Amino acid sequence: MRNHSKAFLLLALALATVVDCNLEGDILHAQKLAWEDPNNVLKSWDPTLVNPCTWYHVTCNKDNSVIRLDLGEAGLSGPILPLLGNLTNLQYLELYGNNMNGTVPEELGQLTNLISMELQQNVLTGPIPSSIGNIQSLKFLRLNANMLTGEIPIEVLSLIRSGNLSVMNISDNYLEGTIRRSEQTGFSITTVIMDQKTFK
Ligand SMILES: *[C@@H]1O[C@H](CO)[C@@H](O)[C@H](O)[C@H]1NC(C)=O
Ligand SMILES: *[C@@H]1O[C@H](CO)[C@@H](O)[C@H](O)[C@H]1NC(C)=O
Ligand SMILES: *[C@@H]1O[C@H](CO)[C@@H](O)[C@H](O)[C@H]1NC(C)=O
Ligand SMILES: *[C@@H]1O[C@H](CO)[C@@H](O)[C@H](O)[C@H]1NC(C)=O
Predict the structure, then answer these.
(1) Distance 22 CA to ligand 1 centre (A)
(2) Distance, CA of 154 to chain centre
(3) What is the reported pLDDT for 181?
(4) Whole-structure pTM value
(5) I want to staple 136 with a disulfide (CB 3.0 to 4.6 A). Which of 118, 124, 146, 163 is the partner?
(6) The CATH number of domain 2-198 is 3.80.10.10
(7) Domain residue spans in the chain?
């Protein structure tokens, strides 16, 4: 009995290690399965490889961890999976100009190394998650030209003062709020881009 459970434990550990090795590949592969990809841009995303670092549109650091996802104007449609929030080292999330629908997952707020979140020109609905305010490293936040509703979370706005946020374009959505146009916000370095259509 003892030996059996020991062997089982070792097997389980070995499997866990194998799975862990390609955890990021599994996350991206799950995202691939959730998207429609009529142009086959994700053809190289083979989940049987040891990591996703050789896949097109994916960039890794020297530790084989994903730091960029470059899928702007790729003809993709479908949801942005909350699981993307588990790509711990991601710095660039470039999903602009597709047909991504559904909401912006609040789990993206776990991406505390993110420099650029470009989700503009999709058909995203729902609110801007306040969790984005956790991303002190964020420099570029582009959510313009979607169908987002609600108010801009104060947590996100405060990144302008306390974090690195220098460009935030949220215009051409259905947001509400009291923030004025960039020349009236009083934030000196920051460009907050929005328009009258956005702010009623
Ligand atoms: C993703 O992250 C969440 C929160 O940190 C964790 O609970 C979950 O197990 C992770 N999922 C995977 C597949 O790594
Ligand atoms: C997203 O679009 C697909 C395809 O049109 C549709 O089946 C799905 O219900 C949409 N999801 C949401 C959340 O609107
Ligand atoms: C803000 O940006 C600077 C310069 O690019 C960088 O050194 C710093 O680590 C960033 N802050 C955070 C919290 O990522
Ligand atoms: C901000 O978004 C609007 C709407 O999509 C776009 O027309 C405008 O060019 C963007 N501005 C900048 C500076 O990116």
Answers:
(1) 14
(2) 20
(3) 47
(4) 0.85
(5) 163
(6) yes
(7) 2-198
